[in-house]
Design brief:
Largest sheet: 4 strands, antiparallel
CATH topology: Aminopeptidase
Structural class: alpha+beta
Strand order of the largest sheet: 1-2-3-4
CATH class: Alpha Beta
CATH superfamily: Gcn5-related N-acetyltransferase (GNAT)
Oligomer: single chain
CATH architecture: 3-Layer(aba) Sandwich
Number of domains: 1
Strand content: 25-35%
C-alpha cells in the first residue's frame, strides 16, 4: 500500500488530540496528554511554526502515524534538527517507521541544503526503533546511562543516533571513532 506524508494543519487539532490521547506510546513521554494541552500546543506553534513541522503518515488514505520535526530554527546557523516519530499501535511492525525515517531524512536534507546532520534518541529497550535507525543509515553516537525515566519511575538508558549528509548521499555509514581517548597517565 502507498505511504504518503501530509503536513499538519490547525484544523487537524481534534484528530491530533484523539491520535495522541487514545493511543499507547510506551517509548514516549509524557503519556498523560489532554485535549487542552494539545490545543495549546497547536495554537502555540509546538507542532508547526518556526521551530517545528509536523506531518501525518498516511496509508491507504488513513492517518496512521505522526512525524514531528523540531529545533528547525537553529538549522541555518549549523544546528541539528531532532524528531519525534509515532506509528499507531495497529500499524506497527509493518516497516512504516523505517519508511518514515527514510522520508524525513530526505525531506530535511533537501529542505535545508546546508544541514550537516540529523539526530534522534530512543530508549535502550526500544529495540524496533534502534534497528530502524541502523537500517536507515544512522550511526549510534551516544549511550546515556539512566537518562530516561518512564511513567512507572523506572529509569532506562537513552541511545542517540545520527546521520551525516555525506553518509546519506553516499549510502555508507561512518561510525564514530570510539577509541579516540588517550589512556590516563
Amino acid at each position: 500500500m502507498h505511504t504518503s506524508y501530509q503536513r499538519l494543519v490547525a484544523s487537524d487539532v481534534d484528530f491530533l488530540a484523539d491520535f495522541l490521547i487514545d493511543e499507547s506510546w510506551p517509548f514516549h513521554g509524557p503519556a498523560a496528554l489532554d485535549r487542552d494541552t494539545v490545543r495549546r500546543r497547536v495554537s502555540g506553534g509546538y507542532y508547526d511554526g518556526d521551530e517545528s513541522r509536523t506531518f501525518w503518515i498516511i496509508v491507504g488514505g488513513e492517518r496512521v502515524g505522526l512525524i514531528r520535526l523540531f529545533d528547525l530554527a537553529d538549522v541555518p546557523e549549523g544546528g541539528t534538527p531532532l524528531f519525534d516519530l509515532r506509528v499507531g499501535a495497529a500499524h506497527r511492525s509493518r516497516g512504516l517507521g523505517g519508511q518514515a525515517l527514510t522520508w524525513l531524512t530526505a525531506y530535511l536534507f533537501t529542505e535545508f541544503p546546508d544541514l550537516r546532520r540529523i539526530e534522534g534518541t530512543t530508549r535502550q529497550d526500544n529495540r524496533a526503533m534502534r534497528r530502524t535507525f541502523l537500517s536507515s543509515g544512522y550511526a549510534k553516537e551516544a549511550h546515556y546511562r539512566q537518562a530516561w525515566p518512564d511513567e512507572q519511575e523506572h529509569v532506562h538508558d537513552a541511545v542517540g543516533y545520527a546521520i551525516l549528509r555525506h553518509d546519506w548521499l553516499s549510502g555508507a555509514t561512518t561510525p564514530p571513532d570510539w577509541n579516540d581517548e588517550q589512556p590516563a597517565t
